[in-house]
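Researcher: Go.
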Amino acid sequence: MQQADLVVVGGGIVGLATAWRFGERRPGARVVVLEKEPSLAAHQTGRNSGVVHSGLYYAPGSRKASLCRAGKRALEEFCAAHAIRHERCGKVVVAVDADELPRLERIESRARANGVQVERIGPQRLRELEPNCAGLAALHVPETGIVDYHGVCETLARLVRARGGAVETAARVTGITERDGGVVVESARGEWRAPALVNCAGLHSDRVAELSGTRRAARIVPFRGEYYELVPEAERLVRNLIYPVPDPAFPFLGVHFTRMALGGVECGPNAVLALAREGYRWSDVSLPDLWDVLSFRGFRRFAARHWRMGLSEVHRSISKPAFVRALQRLLPAIRAEHLRPAVAGVRAQALLESGELVDDFLIQRGGRCVHVLNAPSPAATAGLAIGDAVVDELE
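Model: Structure:
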């Protein structure tokens, strides 16, 4: 059995940031990261749109708001220090219809409360920023950026190893037991013993919590986000980032346009229930995963409230013309031939038994384990700050 001072389950940005921050605070400590996939950042971190969020949408005083702002600053400094591709390119949040204007005002109010630099602009200024975009009004957020999250994770892993830690891939965790004043972790790469464990397993975080003997405070429900990308000759239609005004009743931001740090422009995502925890296509079906969702009273309550929106998202998933029409609200010049399929992502969204989506980051302690049970967007932006918060919890 190998010894460590901390075991971290999950090799996405939150797990790697936690391992790095722990090692920074405790020089000489040995940290091991156990990732079940053969590579790092294989799921949420590596399959998002690469945006560095500013903290625009989140309730003032929430963990999302505070950790996004702190994490954004830390991420930008980290990228500058380690020569990782990133850029402050700015984005616009566009109101297309008059009934969206009050929602735009509420977002502006939240942004200012969170300390975000934001400017309300009209159609003329909007056309100067995004000549092909249509809208009645918009918010310009110059501090929003883009980044190479794969590069961030590879750098974090290198720094953890440089301090004497281990980052093990293909190391699925199969058992967690607290005994004799520590935690024993069984994995596909051997057994580890440490005084504490941090669970940053993302799509499987609730199951890892249960594996350790902690009752699930919430159930992970996987929502797939499907993307297209612009063909090279159509990339000129988008300068930076173009977002719609989100529906406050749903935690997703709607289909948008994102210029990527490593090149290209992504369009999407929609949000449909994935038929597996790692269901990146309709053909990816796991009966145990599906039963875990459908047998959960919280999901049935959620579906009863939002079935109309769910059907519209499914329609957009199976109909490219419907997806194109959604994009044309923001960019009328977009045509079907401008789009080709891109890599999909799955969001690990925690859901309560009441049927309410967990709207904030959720960190739960159980014995000698700390579980990060809800860390969807903007968790990648906030990753370094979430790592700090988890280490605070450990201490």
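Model: The longest helix spans residues 297-318.
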